[in-house]
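Lab notes, practical 5.
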Amino acid sequence: MKHISFSELKNWDKCPFYHKLVNLEKIKLFQGNEYTAFGNAIHSVCEESLLREKLNASDFFIKEYRNALKKLVDINYEFDKKLAVDMKQQGLELIPHIKPALKDYFDDYEIVATEEKLFEDTEVEGYKFKGYVDLILKTKNGKYHVIDWKTCSWGWNFWKRSEKMTTYQLTYYKHFFAKKYNIKLDNIETHFALLKRTAKKDKVEIFKVSSGEKKVKNALNFLNKALYNINNKNFVKNKISCRNCEFNKTKHCP
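Output from the prediction step:
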């Protein structure tokens, strides 16, 4: 069964030819850096600390972070040692704020799932949508809350918070989570949770993202358009994206 993930869809939005190289031909020049290592380690802490009450979150983070950095060494990536040390300390200062932030924002809640797997039919025959939702909570009012953790430095500006493709991630998660469990869309709310490395205060910021009926419809139309073009092998280059593309002026994209 063919499938598409949000990250794949995001690549197609960036440039259909880039999507072809990365997702179909499996050519990957970028394999990670200090920021992805930090993000992976913190995501693991968020998941495990909610599932394991007696977890030593700081020790767990250090272990996960070291493993992530080791993987960079294994692929001969020369990481910035000072930045890596700084990030370790930033992570340790951030961790104690994660659970209190959820409590302050949602008050009384129950954990429905972490890393909830989605593999649901799309409107395009033969294609499924694949994804993993970081966290799903349920509050006393019966509402489900779809949450995605995002690591960043000091926070997001207004443009980033409202950018279409960024927020579509939650829209797709909401739609396909509702479809998987036959839940009404208006009974599900969506949120980003920013995990800020360098912020002096509000190190964990949770905010709601609108995912109403119209937005869900627009997101699904965009998904259907992408799947139609992928299925028909329409991989036109988006030259606006060339400047910041790792394939620019390489043998893969002359």
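Observations recorded by the TA: The CA atoms of residues 148 and 196 lie 14 Å apart. The chain has a mean pLDDT of 96.
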